[in-house]
Amino acid sequence: MPKRIITLACASVLTALVGCGETTESTATTESKAPMQSQPEAPQKKSANTLLADWAGPYQGVPAFDKMALSDLKAALETAMAEGLVNIEAIANNPAPASFDNTIAALEGSTQTLDRVFTYYYIWMANNSSEEYRSIQGEMVPALSAFSSQITQNKALFNRIETVFKNPSFKDLRADQQRLTQIVYGNFARNGSTLEGEAKDRYAEIETRLAELYTKFSNNVLHDEQNYVIYLDESQLSGLPKSFVSAAKAAAETKGENGKYAVSNTRSSMDPFLTYSEERALREQVWRSYYSRGDNGDEYDNNAIIAEILKLREERVQLLGYDNYAQWRLEDRMAGSPDNAMALLESVWPAAIARVNEEVADMQAIADAESSEKITIEPWDYRFYAEKVRKAKYDLDSNEVKQYLQLDKLREAMFYVAGRLFNFEFTPITDGSVPVFHEDVNVWEVTDKTTKQHIGLWYLDPFAREGKRSGAWATTYRQFSDYDGVTNVLASNNSNFVKGAAGAPVLVSWDDAETFFHEFGHALHYLSSSVSYPSLSGGVRDYTEFQSQLLERWLMTDEVINQFLTHVDTGKPMPAELLAKIKNAATFNEGFATTEYLASAIIDLKLHMVEAADIDPDAFERDTLTQMGMPKELVMRHRTPHFGHVFSGEGYSAGYYGYMWAEVLTSDAAAAFDESEGGYYDPVMADKLVKHLFQVQNSVDPAEAYRAFRGRDANVEALMRDRGFPINSEQ
């Protein structure tokens, strides 16, 4: 049974899904896969409800996004859950002795219909939300939670799982089957299967309430993102690049505000506005609007919701015998304990805030020199004056760099890297054979460059729009497996770039380009999978970000820069002198980036390590940051009232530290490429990368997989060097 069914109550945002190859004809990615026809036709099970039907058409069948109807959703969920419970009961009450095949493997396919329905459910949730959908969602969340509890609290089923796990024959299973059994047993035991009586009932009640709160939290943030749009007139555009102005005009027109310019309440709109706008009062307005999401003291305020979530999480894990939520959450992660995770964060914190102090001093000096009116750097000034410092110290203009970062070209660059490292080839599907849920979505077939073997499909949904949650993420509609016939992969990347005028190239920032590569790394992780069982896809949270973070490094390779980073007007490649400036400024503003991240990660951990009674989230955030010595010139990357990673579900709860844990691995692994004879396109290193870091997913313990790649464990020194911080700093 896919592990997401175990945590259905938590699955309210797609960030809960994980994800993160080369031309020297490395076929490592596909060697272990059974042959797969290029376009096998999939038969369709007849059903009046499209959401329940088997996926038909080419490529082993694809979601019927062009036929999905919201009016079918509730009935589809109810029918699929009922079918799933029948299958679960059949496994739990099988008269034959419990075995891996009739229990653990059988669970993998027990909710296939519900998996298909969830594909549509998540599309409406993350990519195309509406009031009608949210009404259905609110009605169905308790039912989904109850469904999850019926599975995890099925005593007969858990007894069979435990029998397989503790049977002496366990040692005779294949290594991946042993790991799957261990993971399934752990998921059940850690989610209430060992409870009895009142404790069991209370656990189920908590799960249901949490599911409702996660949905409410997420919808509140979405409300504030959609309803706090700031409209400008032409007199308020000073300093803004033409590309931003054009996109803001187009955004206003889509909202019926012709002749105006819209600054949306999303990071992709906020960040460039704060970087370039010369209107200080407007910068403050945009900043306050963005960082106040979920914290406006109205019916969409999330503070009371957060307080209740924290209390319920604590009560739930205490029923299982844990001291606090963080202890429970990190038990099966690479970090192992909240103390280990906190130790990493606190080891970097002093150097980060020391660098912030240096950055602020540089910015204040420019502000003092430029203005006759004395100003003190405030959070809404940081990006604006940082850009001025960048120009002064490094002669580097971010807007100049942006002219070489065309979204379509970046996509082609990602395909190039995938070809060089993974031997993948991407071919656009333009014949209409693969339905999409919005006109902005495009699809590519992924094949092996050498054998032409079909691997899967890649969907791209790049632009922001009404009803789409902010941020960037990756997900799968179908994962690779071969335990019951070989399946291909349907992977998707989703972003929120601001769409410009029709036909105009979309230009993005360097940070956005890195994020694009990052999320594509998740897609490559899916596409390269060779695991037999779907529940072994992905991996533990503080490891799965590693693969995607590592892929960001290829953006800076000469091969990508020289071929794909070309000027939007002249078509000429980025000049060597500009590239030199970028590399010279690689650690510029690292104090800001590291500190805003660390503050979020530390607050997340601390919230889940202390007693949850009577926590006031706003006061806790403010007081804890003060105690930490948080510089007043910036804020957390994700303030608590809109921290969707942590409170829209449980994908990153007490686990946001995982980005830095993974980055230790990333910096250490990148050093291996730096040290290799062929650099980032070394065929031997590419082969090791695919075999040990991407293909195996969660079928191998992450620590073992990394040692197989690197020959040793990672250390933090490479991370400190990458960020330009002193190693073993005592600051």
UniProtKB/TrEMBL annotation:
Q: Which domain of life is it from?
A: Bacteria
- In the UniProt record, the signal sequence range is 1-21
- What cellular-component terms does GO give this entry? cytosol
Q: Which PROSITE patterns match?
A: PROKAR_LIPOPROTEIN
Sorted keywords for this record are: Hydrolase, Metal-binding, Metalloprotease, Protease, Signal, Zinc
The reply to whether RNA-binding figures as a keyword in the UniProt entry is: no
Q: Where is the composition biased (Polar residues)?
A: 35-47
Biological process terms from the Gene Ontology for this record are: proteolysis
Q: Which InterPro entries match?
A: M3A_DCP (IPR034005), MetalloPept_cat_dom_sf (IPR024079), Neurolysin/TOP_dom2 (IPR024077), Pept_M3A_M3B (IPR045090), Pept_M3A_M3B_dom (IPR001567)
The residue ranges of the Peptidase M3A/M3B catalytic domain are 273-723
- State the Pfam families in the record: Peptidase_M3
Example of a GO MF term: metalloendopeptidase activity
Enumerate the Gene3D superfamilies for this protein: Collagenase (Catalytic Domain), Neurolysin, domain 3
Which cofactors, by name? Answer: Zn(2+)
Region (Disordered) residue ranges read: 26-47
Keyword Protease attributed? yes
The cofactor binding remark recorded in the entry reads: Binds 1 zinc ion.
Family to which the UniProt record says this protein belongs: Belongs to the peptidase M3 family.
Name assigned to this protein = M3 family metallopeptidase
- Source organism of the structure: Echinimonas agarilytica
